[in-house]
Amino acid sequence: MEALVLRAMAFYRQGEMDVALSHFKVGLRSDPDHKVLKREYKKVKKISRKVKAGMELLNSHRVRDLKEAVDNFQQAIDLDPDHAVQASDLSHKICRAYNKMGKGKEALAACNKAMEHNPTSGDILCDRAEAHMKLEEWQEAINDYREASQHGGGDRARQGQHKAEIELKKSKRKDYYKILGVSRNANARDIKRAYRKLALKWHPDKHQSDEDKEAASKKFHDIGRAYEVLSDDELRARFDSGEDLEDQNGGGGGGGGPRGHPFQFFQQGGRRGGGGGFSFHFG
Q1: Angle in degrees, CA 177, 183, 185, rounded to 5
Q2: Rounded to an integer, what distance in angstroms lies between the CA atom of residue 2 and that of residue 182?
Q3: Measured between alpha carbons, how far is residue 202 from residues 199, 214, 262, 264 in Å?
Q4: pTM strictly above 0.85
Q5: Is pLDDT larger for residue 171 or for residue 228?
Q6: What confidence score (pLDDT) does residue 24 get?
Q7: Across the strands, what pairs with 268?
């Protein structure tokens, strides 16, 4: 009987819970009152149920289901916290669930726990890289994808590294969406509305001191450049793909404002107002 118990526990430690449960059942049929068999059978059976329930929920895209999956996996870990292999595997599943929920911080913590026992898993490294991506930690994501490529990460690691490198490059440019305060899926009307509002606010003629005028001029230039790029389908597509249009001066747009110098959008028939100012006019 002791040999049967040892075999059952060995299968359990290897992650073969169904096989382990079968061995426990065989033993209990022979000796229903065996204390170790009864105790371990109940524990492994409960863990197995939690894991299977979590796996079913992990396939969902509903946040409520994914949260429940996390709870099931964590409860399974807590039932046998000394089982390092199992804790690593379930922590990895928790990481995946949090990534699906868009919770990068929680996903990163879970993947770090998973890697304590399995530091060279390509799958875990890719999932940790995904968590870094959600946190906009581009260099860390590149590092993990690169390492994953050395440990069986395959196409996912290579494609992920390429995407992270693009995002890193993009992060070092001026973000025209942030400058205008619009989302990346903003339509032409939203972009134009945001531009008009900000251009009115930061027009240099609305500021008095030389210092304020200089700061406003720089801001106004950026606003105009952002509108020039985002209002042009081709330039916007190039910007979204990761190109640094600053280095290319916007492909010949003049670099100042929409289709020309910074104040063109506010001039009416080329007429300037008194004191060298500009009259506001929106077409």
Answers
A1: 110
A2: 68
A3: 5, 11, 11, 14
A4: no
A5: 228
A6: 87
A7: 271
